[in-house]
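Supplementary Methods S3. Input chains for the assembly prediction are listed below.
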Amino acid sequence: MSEVKLRMPQVTDGVALNHLVAASPPLDGNSVYCNLLQCGHFAGTGVAAEHNGELVGFVSGYQLPGQPHVWFVWQVVVAEQARGQGLAKKMLKHVLARPALAGVRHIHTSITPGNQASHATFASLAKDLNCPVSASPWLESDIHFAGLHDPEHLIDVGPFKIQ
Ligand SMILES: CC(C)(COP(=O)(O)OP(=O)(O)OC[C@H]1O[C@@H](n2cnc3c(N)ncnc32)[C@H](O)[C@@H]1OP(=O)(O)O)[C@@H](O)C(=O)NCCC(=O)NCCS
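Predicted structure tokens for the full assembly:
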């Protein structure tokens, strides 16, 4: 895919993000309102990827309350036509390179056990950052989702130090 531009999310990306996530199973959809907050309040810890004016990728996240050395990645999404070209990892590294995140030492994210693409993305990122990656049970299907959702494992990438 020709030139994909990475830029700061804007509140006006909310609806396009909502549509991109809806078209990208197994991601859970959020309300447009929630997407607007991700794009607005949490713009500094997220990134938008654009191709020919179309949103083709997005990373949403935030620094854990009280633990600013942990960047929690809420969702990573890449449009189907843009997958397999390194965009997910490029977006994650782009955010990590921001001066405001210079103190980040760990990435946390949660992944359903069957999401191989997501596991592979964070394992590959850990390799590039030369740090360990681990997975542990976090949100249980019965206890936290009333049996309506697969369990979510907590992935910990780190510790690492950004140059
Ligand atoms: C997961 C997702 C974001 C990956 O995006 P992508 O841009 O294709 O990923 P990248 O090209 O950066 O690949 C990163 C690494 O993961 C590997 N990978 C990506 N997709 C894979 C797949 N389906 N199966 C196996 N490995 C895969 C790549 O080979 C690469 O490894 P390498 O660096 O060792 O070559 C994308 O498939 C997606 O949006 N899926 C639907 C939504 C989702 O599940 N999001 C993650 C949950 S937060």
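The chain has one domain: 5-157. The first strand starts at residue 5 and ends at 7.
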